[in-house]
Specification:
With 65 residues, the chain is mainly alpha-helical. The chain contains 4 helices and 2 strands. Strands 1-2 form a two-stranded antiparallel ribbon. The radius of gyration is 11 Å and the shape is globular.
């Protein structure tokens, strides 16, 4: 099982979800799916998000058996 920490990092950042959605041109539903690991950003989106939030891209997800 993959656990997404994207939502936690967004909460800790200076950006709100609305800004992230506008920045990437995605819907609130898409961002919500990224935050719950129902769907995943593309690799370029993942790298851009990590850069925007000042986080290493590998920190966005954890694996739990």
């Amino acid at each position: 099982m993959i656990i997404s920490l994207i939502g936690s990092y967004i909460k800790q950042s200076q950006y709100d979800r609305k800004y992230i959605c506008e920045y990437f041109g995605i819907s609130q539903n898409t961002l919500s799916n990224w935050c719950t690991a129902k769907t995943f950003p593309t690799i370029p989106q993942l790298l851009q998000l990590a850069n925007l939030l000042g986080v290493h891209y590998g920190d966005f997800y954890k694996y739990k058996e």
